[in-house]
What does this fold into?
Amino acid sequence: MTTENPENAPAQPPKSKKDMTPEERAAAIKAAQEKAARLKAEREAAKAAAAAAEGGGGTATAVATAEPPKPTAPQWRIPASALAGAGDGKVGLAQPDQRQVAEVQQEEAEVKRYIRRRQVLRGGVFAALGGFVIIMVGSFLNFFNPRHIQGFGGKFTIPPTQVPKPGDDPVQFLDAKTWLVNLKPGEGGAPSLGVPNSEKGGLVALYQKCPHLGCTVPWRADFEFEGIKGWFRCPCHGSTYTKGGGRVYGPAPRSMDTFAISFGAGGNVIIDTGKITLGDTNDPNRAILPPA
It folds into this structure.
């Protein structure tokens, strides 16, 4: 019986990187590093011995060690046997693909830009919501506590020189959207048509808007209806009102609306267009007399 000598066994071809297990690759890397260090030390020692022999004529052995230069970019030391087509046992350096590095950096930059955009948009949305809330709160407070009202919706002061005399035709004030009527006692209605006359007479401030569809109602001193001359008559659909604002004809749902009236110093008449009373057949009797 013969036993084969391991030294005489045929040499096994080195395994490729694909066939190695992780432990084998690690061992191969470590062995390659040790071999490289040993070869380098031998070369340095040989150089030192040669230099010493030339300079001093003697024999000396010196071992020089030097730290390997620091790589300027990420590098991985792997045995050359693990590289395709390499079989001399040298150590090779592997570096990352610069294209992949550039792609990763570009993706990171895009993510940062996206995050910044989201932050800006989020800030804009919150700012808009805050402004909307402020406007709504301001409108709510102003609705229940109006201040500094100017124009229609506020108060208008009419000097006594512009106030019509009792029995005169109504006078229109465009800014106040008002017809100011000064009725005589027993005027302003049409009893035969269901609107009583004013009992004491006085001033009535009629809203010029027709209660039907909002058309401006003019005073028609020349218009005759039911044997009476002088009516408020809507040009849109023919709704007709007495001098005191009482409805007698047409599609309007009610008589003309009225504004509150008060009196100021010097005989001024103050019309409050913010206080509206819906029209009714008693419009002529809403007239008030100025203070004596």
In short: Confidence is low (pLDDT under 50) at residues 58-65. The longest helix spans residues 98-144. The chain has two domains: 14-96, 155-286. Residues 65 and 278 are 109 Å apart (CA to CA).
